[in-house]
Design goal:
Strand order of the largest sheet: 1-2-4-3-5
Number of strands: 13
Shape: globular
Radius of gyration: 21 Å
Distance between the termini: 32 Å
Structural class: alpha/beta
Helix content: 40-55%
Largest sheet: 5 strands, mixed
Length: 463
């Protein structure tokens, strides 16, 4: 069990659940899904916020609806054999969890990283149900990936792995069935190899079966930027409710991948001073503000490390290998790296330094204990299922363009993304107020997403 899960359970002997029924449901989930702490954490976080919804809508507690929502419709695990450049046969494990299709085809990314296991994929897929529901678009929740690590592998090795992975996965996909996208370790290169093998396996040009494609062959403008842009737009909406904006605010961002880079770009465009980025080795503090063109060159072109940024940036930047990026004083923090990266100690440091807003660019990067610290201090907290939904929303826009054999301009797509993020914020804010917890975006996001999916499940019968 992860430290964050232990913390949550030690503080809440009955898991912090408001009713015996919810406690019973969660106890059974723990029994049936042993050894999957991230999935336990994701489910508990949702169940802890459902009591106000169930009190006003008791029909949603009937017909085993919550139990069905917490059980994937399908879990696929398969072997992925491939050959490296020296001829050695390697074997990885592939996953696809098709969690809930009440609102539309399964939609969610593929993650290639050594940490990937069934529990990780289930936690991500469960989060995806609510995130996709919040977009207001007709997409269900799913997630997948492999414990393959593309880091340090040649293009030829990555291609052979992707071809083997898609050879098995292709039989489970389709533009009306399941539509994967990228995630950690899966960018444009990997999507290209996967799509090529899907065409080879099916003999169909089915552009809508994968999103995150290249612009010349069915991709969408603004998809690369969408998750980071959307997170910053959500943050701006949270600040706007409080009578502030991002202009002049000092911002700390973790990570240096796609989400982090485009969070930095949009925050800078809105007048913020972004002073950090990070990777697994350490973090950079640049008092003049991150030089985005240099960071893009190092991370997107050279596939280098943030230490290279510090070496080449000059005296304004320093590279730190001890401590955490959250030690840097800021007005706004955007955790954009990976799950459980911001713990309660880090949250206390942020609060002590006067942070006003924390918004999750990554999936579940803030531990439950840290969320409590932030909320109790009155910090505006944007949960990932709402704040980083811009990525999947733009993926759905890509599917829409593919279905119409159309291609939108960057400005049109970005305008639609901004509208979706405003609507998501409004739904979370208004739902929290309606259920008597104003300003609680966690409850607002969970309740709004849950109600939309639950209503669809009830309408479609016992499935």
């Amino acid at each position: 069990m992860s430290p964050s899960s232990q913390t949550a359970r030690s503080r809440h002997p009955e898991h912090g659940l408001a009713t015996p029924e919810l406690t019973s449901i969660y106890t059974e989930i723990l029994r049936r899904n042993a050894g999957e702490p991230e999935f336990h954490q994701a489910v508990l976080e949702v169940l802890q916020t459902l009591a106000p919804v169930l009190a006003t809508r008791p029909e949603l507690a009937e017909a085993g609806l919550i139990e069905r929502l917490c059980e994937p419709e399908r879990q696929i695990i398969f072997r992925v054999p491939w050959q490296d450049d020296v001829g050695q046969v390697r074997v990885n494990r592939g996953f696809r969890v098709e969690f809930n299709s009440a609102l539309g085809p399964y939609k969610g990314g593929l993650r290639f990283h050594p940490s990937v296991n069934l529990g990780i994929v289930k936690f991500l897929g469960f989060e995806q149900i609510f995130k996709n529901a919040l977009t207001g678009m007709n997409i269900g929740g799913g997630k997948g990936g492999s414990d393959f690590d593309p880091k340090g592998r040649s293009d030829a090795e990555v291609m052979r792995f992707c071809q083997s992975f898609m050879t098995e996965l292709s039989r489970h996909l389709g533009e009306h069935t399941d539509v994967p996208a990228g995630d950690i370790g899966v960018g444009g290169r990997e999507i290209g190899f996967l799509f090529g093998q899907y065409r080879r396996m099916t003999n169909r040009w089915e552009a809508g079966v994968l999103t995150g494609k290249g612009l010349d062959w069915g991709g969408s403008q603004a998809r690369t930027e969408a998750t980071g842009y959307g997170n910053v737009l959500f943050t701006a909406e949270m600040l706007n409710v409080r009578g502030e904006d991002l202009h002049g605010q000092q911002v700390v961002v973790s990570g240096s991948g796609n989400v982090a880079i485009y969070s930095i770009e949009k925050a800078q465009a809105l007048g913020a001073n972004v002073v950090t980025c990070s990777d697994s080795g350490g973090y950079v503090v640049d008092e003049k503000g991150i030089d985005l063109s240099l960071l893009k060159q190092i991370k997107e072109v050279e596939r280098g490390r943030v230490s290279d940024y510090a070496d080449r940036r000059g005296p304004s930047a320093r590279y730190v290998t001890d401590g955490q990026v959250w030690d840097v004083p800021c007005d706004v923090a955007l955790p954009s790296a990976t799950q459980n990266e911001l713990d309660s100690g880090a949250a206390q440091t942020l609060v002590g330094n006067g942070v006003k807003a924390v918004s999750e660019g990554a999936n579940m990067p803030t531990t439950p204990a840290a969320v409590r610290v932030l909320q109790e201090a009155g910090v505006a907290f944007g949960p990932g299922k709402a704040a980083n939904a811009g990525g999947v929303a733009t993926s759905a826009l890509e599917m829409q363009q593919n279905a119409g054999r159309d291609s939108w301009s960057f400005s049109r797509t970005e305008e639609r993304l901004a509208e979706i993020m405003r609507d998501i914020h409004a739904a979370c804010h208004e739902t929290a107020e309606r259920h008597g917890v104003p300003g609680d975006y966690v409850t607002g996001a969970n309740a709004a997403g849950f109600e939309r999916v639950a209503d669809a499940m009830l309408a479609q019968g016992l499935i």
